[in-house]
Amino acid sequence: MEFEPVIGLEVHAQLKTNTKIFCSCSTEFGSPSNTHVCPVCLGMPGTLPVLNKKVVEYALLMAMATNCSINQVNRFARKNYYYPDLPKGYQISQYELPIAEHGYLDIEVNGDNKRIGITRIHMEEDAGKLTHDPHRPLSMIDFNRTGVPLIEIVSEPDIRSPEEAGAYLRQMHAILRYLDICDGNMEEGSFRCDANISIRAKGEKKLGTRAELKNLNSFKNVEKSIEYEIYRQKDILLDNGIIIQETRLWNADTNSTISMRSKEEANDYRYFPDPDLLPVHIDKKWIDTLKKDLPELPQEKKERFIIKYGLTSTDAELLTSSRDMADYFDECVKLFNQPKQIGNWIMGSLLGLLNLEGKTISESPVSAQHLTDMLKLIDKDLISGKIAKTVFDEMAKTGKPPKQIVEEKGLVQLTDRFEIENIIVKIISDNPKEAEAYKNGKTKLFGFFVGQVMKATRGKANPKIVNEILKSQFQNASFCPISAAVKNFNPRNT
Ligand code: ADP
Ligand code: MG
Ligand code: ZN
Fold first, then answer.
1. What is the mean pLDDT of the chain?
2. 247 lies in a domain?
3. Which SS3 state, helix, strand or coil, does residue 417 take?
4. What CATH number should be reported for the domain holding residue 489?
5. Closest CA to 328 of 303, 305, 355, 306
6. Does ligand 1 come within 6 angstroms of the Cβ of 207?
C-alpha cells in the first residue's frame, strides 16, 4: 500500500513591538528575570488589559502579505488551562473570530510551484518561561515573556513532504523579516513552529490521526523530525497498529520523537470571549494605508530578479532570502549593471566570508561600492578574476577600496603581449619533455603550461592572452619560433 503524508504547520511569531500586548512592560529579550513585569502581565486581580495598537497593525501586515481576508471585527478569547508559566490561569488568544482567515502562500520545491492554504492568523499573548534546574528538584519562572505579543499562523493540511514544509517555513520567515515585524530568531524562540503530521493511504480523502511535534528550533530540525515521524507512523500502520493523537517532542540528539502527552481537544480549553476586552474594530481606511505602504515581498522580489536580471530561480531565491541581502544586491546592480556576475560574487565569496565570520550581510566588511569597484577593475582588464580573489580577501580584512589595494600590492594585470610571449617561450624551452608530450597528443598538459605562466607572473598574467599565445606557440608543430627570442631559449635548436 502506498502512503501519503499530510502535514499542517502552526507558526508562532513574536512581534517586534517595544511593549507587551496588554500592558506597557518592555518586550526586550535577555534582561534579568522578572524585571519586565507589572500587575497586568502578572495577572493580579483587579487589573485590566489594554490592547497595543501596534500588535494589530503588525497582524494586519502579515494578513495582507499572506493573502488573507481580514475580519474587520474580531475578538479576543480566553483559552483556559493551568500551568505555572501562565499566571492568570488562561491565555488571551483569539478563537471563533480571529483577525484574518483564508489566505495562502505560494512555495517552490524542486522547480514545482505549490499553493499552501492558510487557515487563520490570530493574535495572542506569550506565556512565561520555566527553567528546570538539572541538579536540584527546582524550577524557576521568568515572567518577562508573559504578555509578549505573538501571532499564530495556522496552515491548512496541504503540505505533503518535509521539503515542502521547509520551503513554506522559510518563505513565512522571510516575509516576517521583510515586513520587519518579527526578528525571526529561532533559537531565542521568536519564530516557533509546531508540525502536525498524519499519514493516509494514497487516494484516501479522510485525514488520518495526527501527531503534533514540538521543540523544533531550526528549519533543519523541522524537516528531519517530519521525516522521522512519517517513518514512525508508517511503521505502526504496516504493523496493523493504531496511531494515537498526541503531542511529541523532537530530540535533536537522538534524531527521534518521544511522546510528551496525549493531545487535548479544543473543548478542553473552554474558550469563551474575554469580557475584559472589547471586540476589535478595524477601520477600512487603516487597512488601505497599510496596504499602500506594504514593502516589496520576497516572492515579488524573486520574480523581479528573474525577469529583470535574468537570474535563475535558485539564485533569485537565495538572493531574496533576506531583505538585507536583496537590498545589497539591488544596490550593487545600480552601481554596476552586471547582475549575474554580482550574484556569483555575493553567493560565492561574500556569503562564504560572512558565514565564516558569523556575520549578516548588513555587517559585511565589503560594501556594495567596493565590491562593484572591484568588478569594474576586472571589467577593464586591470585585474584578472583570480587576482580579484586576492583583492576581495584584502578588502574583507582591511576595508580598503580595491583600487588602493591593487596599487599598494602591485596587482595590476599583466597584459603586455610581448612580455607574456617571452615568458611563455622560456617556459616551453625549460620544459622540453612536457612540450614534446603535448605535441604528441597529451593535450591535458595545456593546463600545466598555463599554471607555469601564472606561477611565473604570480597570477598576474591575463589568462585570455596567455591562452592565445600558448596556443599559437604550440600550433607551430616544430616549435619554430615566431619570435626570434625562441631561438635563444629552445635547446633543440642550438
Ligand atoms: P490545535 O491548536 O489543536 O493544534 P489547530 O486547528 O490550531 O489545532 O491546528 C491544527 C494544525 O494541524 C493545522 O495546521 C492543521 O492543518 C493541521 N492538521 C489538522 N488535522 C491534521 C491531520 N489529520 N493531519 C495533519 N495535519 C493536520
Ligand atoms: Mg496545535
Ligand atoms: Zn506588564
1. 90
2. yes
3. helix
4. 1.10.10.410
5. 305
6. yes
Dihedral pair phi/psi, residue 216, rounded to 5°: -100, 100
Query: Does residue 211's CB lie within 6 angstroms of at least one atom of ligand 1?
Result: no
| CB of 154 sitting under 6 A from ligand 1 | yes
- Would 359 be classed as within a structural domain? no
Work out how many domains the chain is built from and give that number: 4
Ligand 3 mean position to 39 CA, how many Å? 6
In a domain, 291, yes or no: no
- Ligand nearest to the CA of residue 34, numbered in listed order: 3
pLDDT at 484: 42
Task: Output 300-304 pairs: Cβ under 8 A, ≥24 positions apart.
Answer: 301/326
Residue 173 has pLDDT above 80, yes or no: yes
Q: Does any domain span residue 360?
A: no
φ/ψ (deg, to 5) at 217? -105, 20
Name the residue range of residue 340's domain. 296-353
**What stretch of H or E contains 78?**
strand 76-80
Predicted confidence (pLDDT) per residue in 336-376, tens digit:
999 999 999 999 999 999 999 999 899 999 999 999 999 99
305 and 381 together in one domain: no
CB distance 199 to ligand 1 below 6 Å: no
147 and 242 together in one domain: yes
Four-residue CA torsion sign, 459, 465, 471, 476: negative
